[in-house]
Amino acid sequence: NLTLYFFSNIMNEIRVFSPATVSNVACGFDILGFPLDSVGDEMVVRKTIAKGIIITKIEGYDLPFDINKNVASVSAMALLDVAKPDFGFEIEIYKKIKPGSGIGSSGASATSSVYALNELLGRPFNKLQLTEFAMKGELISSNSEHADNIAPALFGGFTMVKSLNPLEVLQLPTLKDLFVVIIHPQIEIKTSESRGILPKMVSLSDATKQMSDLGGLIHALHTSDYKLLKKSLNDHLVEKHRSKLIPYFDELKSKSLAAGAIGCSISGSGPSVFALVKGKQMAINIELIFNSIYSKSNIDFATYVSKISSDGVIAI
Ligand code: HSE
To answer: In b/e form, how buried is each residue of 266-280, taking b as 16+ CB within 10 angstroms?
Structure first.
């Protein structure tokens, strides 16, 4: 039926889910990350007759409507500068990931808009190009060029940013029983501040240990070796500096590892802390441990349990 075919091919509106992401993943500062499958933002994007971008609605958190200040519109405009369609788009943002949480809130915003526009335009760009556009949005939020939240959100699964210039992204295998448990203490740590406290130089012996652990992790993912994964999830470069900003970090880490977590470290630039675990029951146990540690403090917190998403951002 030609009429039906015609109408089904005109897509004027799309709703997307854009996942939260854990970046760094202990052994891959600024280059490694994975998306969650049950925590993320939603966005509705609609074609408009007027050219350009307009943000018509923001729910969840207080973010700018100014298209030059909102991460989602800045990345969308980077795409439009190249695509140059003779129409425009309006964006509704349903923000569920709290900004400054360390689970890729700005990355999710930057990703959802470029993904949605690309779908509505008939997919002129590949995921690598979308990552380049999204990085323009991430840049205004964190003041640094890194793609370890955006690339996992766009590509899905464990993702490694092999190089920023030229941009090169590697998709790594994900172990099927892996779960992630996250605790988000509701204290504010700005990415710029959390990057600012890091030393500019690291020792040769720390660099050597880090190379060996990153190599170990990649081999573990390719060979489904949980034991090697456990031995490899170490951060010799940044955790010791940033963990001072996160109350109870040492307790979260030591108790979750003692209870059987595969690894535990800071998610992105913090304050969220993540544990990787094997199996749902272990995930529930570790969430209880995280809960009990923070329940005795007067800091508000949220916890999440999720599988690792192999899709990343999707139309819903
Ligand atoms: N890799 C970055 C950092 C992630 O650790 O600063 C920030 O979202």
So the answer is: bbbbbbbbbbbbbee
* Global confidence as pTM: 0.94
- Annotated active-site residue 191? The verdict is yes
Q: Is 252 exposed, middle or buried, given 0-12, 13-18 or 19+ CB atoms closer than 10 A?
A: buried
Dump pLDDT digits (tens) for 24-72.
999 999 999 999 998 999 999 999 999 999 999 999 999 999 999 999 9
Q: Is 239 a catalytic residue?
A: no
**Which residue is closest in CA terms to ligand 1's atom 4?**
268
Indicate the pairing of strand 32-48 with strand 301-307: unpaired
Q: What angle do CA 263, 267, 270 make, to 5 degrees?
A: 135
The active-site residue out of 138, 159, 239, 287 is: 138
Dump pLDDT digits (tens) for 273-293: 999 999 999 999 999 999 999
Asked whether 274 and 22 are in contact (CB, 8 A), the reply is yes
Find out whether the beta carbon of 148 lies less than 6 Å from any atom of ligand 1.
yes
